[in-house]
Amino acid sequence: MKDKIKIGIVGCGMQAQIVYLPALKKNRQAEIFALCDTDIRKLNHLKERYNVPFHYIDFDEFIANPELDAVIITTPNYLHCPMALGALEYDKDVLVETPMAINAKEAQKMTAFAKKKKRILMPAIYQRIRQDVQMIKNFIDGADLGSIYYSKAGWLRGRLDWAMTGWWAEQMRAGGGAFLSLGSQILDIAVYFAAPDKPVSIFGVGHKRNSKSQVEDTAFALLRFPNNQILTIEVGFSVTQEKDFSYYNAFGDKGAALLNPVSVNREMHGHLVNVTPKSMLGQKDYVRQAYNLLADVFVDGVLKGVEMPIKPEHGLLVCQVTDAFYESCASGKEAVIKT
What is the mean pLDDT of residues 242-257? Predict the structure, then answer.
């Protein structure tokens, strides 16, 4: 068994620079071996900063490097599927940013090919391995909150923090708007908490601040589950507020759990009692910790064959829900989620 794995990153934008490069640098079993991007100045800067042996502007040359063990894909959405398939074809293990693909058809193709090649394909739906999410999942699975009947979630990006510019605003490259790009992570928390049940239908509405926009900048959805559980979601790129705001609230007949900040309350002897573990109080930066763990899990999977807690089927389900959302938007009616 190797002491280290050689990892390449394709797409050296904000996500690679803020998340993956720092996370991999901390992992002693990972070597940042190659970078690929069309911006040569960016490549040269990151190559020097992280002492990376190889850099490429051509993906085909990048993926053909025989020493490369695994690839992390952080490119625009429309490239996730073709680049993942290319990496798998060269027998590389793959970690792909969310959304895993721009539609379920692509996600199914990726999932099937990874199985055929016997390689790892892990969508970067890091939310389910967040420490606070894991804690709430334990409360739900232990029936401490009773039967969950209603959940609501949102991720609203303030106009000062976000702008619909570049590939994010283009239908061809983004594949969709706010619901595809922001809703993917929220959806995974929802289906993770509800598992093994899966959502069966969705009613969706998208809003374009500019009528000439190719994709929606704000989206709203109502999802139904087979046990009569209801989930509402709101996401937006450019809401008229100053700061980014995200939340997830789950309500059961015996208690409730909230994220951002984390809080768990149970009804006990006729009183509402805060049962949030003391170890969780005051903690911050769950997202950074989860991304670091995501990188570590991927490295362990490639190097040691450790079973992945995040599977391609999880990303596929999110894509299936997203497809149904856009179907509902187009028809103005509730759409069945085809799983």
Answer: 90
